[in-house]
Design a protein that fits this description.
Shape: extended
Strand content: 5-15%
Strand order of the largest sheet: 5-4-3-6-7
Radius of gyration: 36 Å
Number of strands: 7
Number of helices: 21
Helix content: 40-55%
Length: 558
């Protein structure tokens, strides 16, 4: 072999095999027959380098598509259940997803199986934890309506001696029933008197104040409609339709405007709740959207904001803002100094610091990011969720024991502080090897940025660990919004916030909203000028006093 030929052969051997210009088959719908033909062709040509490159490219493309599909499914799927436990996650998720590439190689320690309990002890524990699925005991405050069902005359005659049988007693059965609501026409008669001697003196019973002057809707109907609409999301049109089914001429527009007037009359009570919330030592707040009809908007509907501010003594104040900008809350908080404030990490909530408040962070939001990452298949988030579970267990145990703020704070320093330090070390270690733009990377970044706020509960005894209570208060509106779709105008939006303020505060204080609104509206129409007599806490005190006096009254009557 000549030198020139040898050199040319070496150059040909050093030249890499060309990459295939076309993929073997589609990664979305692979054709196995096309793959088989390609493999046979490459083997016949002895183009092994090109064969390996093509197969690796196909597998890499299929892997990327599979990863993207898993992320979409995990992100778009409904979050069920909303209060999942760590035990269920540990049992289910490792079976569905394989370990991540950067996960620890050492397997978790096995938990030894629990020996079966003694049969006698098991029966004893079952009897304690057994649910009562029998007939419930109906509360004593419900009215008892007797339904006496006599024996028919044909069965009362004895067939043997032909003598009518006498009553020996009754077999009793209690059933829970309801009296259907029905409309009535209230006939108001105002008496007129005149002097029979001089015939000049004529007087008529003074007209009492009404919600609407010369209105045709009664107070009880308006109170029921207010609660049904704002608490149970019953639209005005549905109330009109139900009334029309009973041949009652009730207009939805008349009903809505009359209920709006009732809310306006209760505005002093709403203002009192507002001042009580904003002057509280501990405040919690959150917001959600409120769609409002707007003819000038390109879509016809503009998204406002509904804020919920909760304060001490179980006050809840809703406020409507035309937009989601923080300037509206800045105007609300102008001239005020907040105390301890619980909220999430939204930049809109930076108004808390501008108002001088000590801001705390929501650990439920921090944990939620780890849950999303674990649902997306990243098992590296498991340890962080275990640490959060231990932190929540400390506060849950304190609540179960009924501890006050001082005892709960001491428990947090004793039990929560070491776990918080362990959580911080885990976050710092994981951030070194987790992709920043991945679901787990975003969750870790949120925890790292919000860490001083997330740990505020270790420095302030009044601070809660989460903002879940405020979010639960907004949940009723969010569910009702699916029925309403929108509110009609700005005035309706403000009235909605005031109505929710009254109803939510009543529920927080353990007051039946219908009874409170009925009695308070009657006091206002009767000319009550003392604001203290109209407040929900005054109503709650009267109810408590009546309950304490009820047993003594019954004993005296006996």
């Amino acid at each position: 072999m000549t030198r020139a030929a040898s050199t040319g052969k070496d150059k040909a051997a050093e030249t890499p095999s060309p990459q295939p210009s076309m993929p073997i088959t589609s990664a979305l719908a692979p054709d196995l027959e096309a793959v088989r033909r390609f493999l046979l062709e490459m083997i016949a040509r002895r183009a092994f380098a090109e064969l390996v490159a093509a197969v690796l490219a196909l597998l890499a493309r299929m892997r990327d598509l599979n990863t993207e599909l898993m992320a979409r499914v995990a992100g778009n799927s409904r979050h069920r259940p909303p209060s999942e436990t760590m035990h269920r996650l540990q049992l289910e998720l490792p079976l569905r997803f394989g370990p991540a590439a950067n996960d620890d190689a050492t397997p978790p320690p096995l938990v030894p199986p629990t020996p079966p309990p003694n049969t006698r002890e098991k029966k004893k524990s079952d009897s304690k934890n057994r649910h009562n699925h029998g007939r419930p005991k109906f509360p004593a405050h419900l009215a008892r309506v007797e339904d006496v069902r006599a024996v028919p005359p044909a069965l009362r005659m004895c067939p043997g001696c032909h003598v009518e049988a006498q009553t020996m007693g009754y077999k009793n059965a209690h059933k829970l029933n309801v009296v259907a609501a029905h409309f009535v026409v209230q006939c108001v008669k105002r008496e007129t008197v005149a002097c029979q001697q001089c015939h000049d003196y004529v007087r008529t019973t003074p007209r009492r104040d009404e919600v609407l002057d010369r209105g045709i809707l009664g107070d009880e109907l308006l109170v029921q409609a207010l609660v049904d609409h704002y608490d149970d999301a019953v639209p005005w049109e549905r109330m009109e339709r139900n009334a029309r089914a009973q041949n009652v001429p009730l207009s939805a527009n008349t009903l809505a405007s009359s209920v709006g007037r009732v809310i306006d009359l209760l505005e002093p009570v709403v203002e009192h709740i507002k001042e009580a919330c904003l002057s509280s030592a501990f405040t919690a707040l959150d917001a959600t959207r409120m769609p409002v009809l707007d003819a000038e908007h390109p879509l016809g509907i503009r998204n406002g904001s509904l804020w919920l501010i909760e304060g001490d003594h179980r006050y809840s104040y809703f406020v409507y803002a035309p937009t989601g900008h923080a300037k509206h809350i800045d105007e609300l908080l102008a001239g005020r100094t907040l105390g301890s404030v619980m909220c999430d990490g939204s930049p809109t909530n930076n108004c808390v610091e501008r108002a001088g408040g000590a801001r705390g962070g929501c650990n439920a939001h921090a944990r939620r990011g780890l849950v999303f990452a674990l649902r997306g298949g990243d098992a590296r988030a498991t340890q962080g969720l275990e640490l959060f579970s231990a932190l929540f267990h400390v506060d849950a145990e304190s609540k179960r024991l009924g501890e006050n703020l001082e005892a709960r704070f001491a428990r947090r320093q004793r039990e929560s502080a070491p776990r918080v330090e362990e959580l911080w070390q885990w976050v710092a270690e994981r951030r070194r090897d987790v992709e920043p733009r991945s679901a787990l990377g975003k969750a870790l970044g949120y925890i790292h940025r919000q860490w001083p706020r997330l740990t505020a509960f270790l420095r302030d005894p009044r601070m809660e660990m989460t903002n879940n209570e405020v979010e639960s208060g907004l949940r009723r509106w969010v569910l009702d919004r699916k029925t309403w779709l929108f509110v009609g105008h700005e005035l309706s939006a403000r009235r909605t916030a005031d109505a929710l303020t009254l109803l939510t505060t009543c529920r927080k204080m353990g007051i039946e909203p219908r009874r409170f609104l009925r009695e308070t509206l009657a006091k206002i129409l009767a000319g009550e000028k003392n604001l203290v007599a109209l407040l929900p806490e005054t109503h709650a005190k009267h109810l408590a006093a009546a309950k304490l006096a009820a047993p003594s009254v019954v004993a005296t009557a006996a």
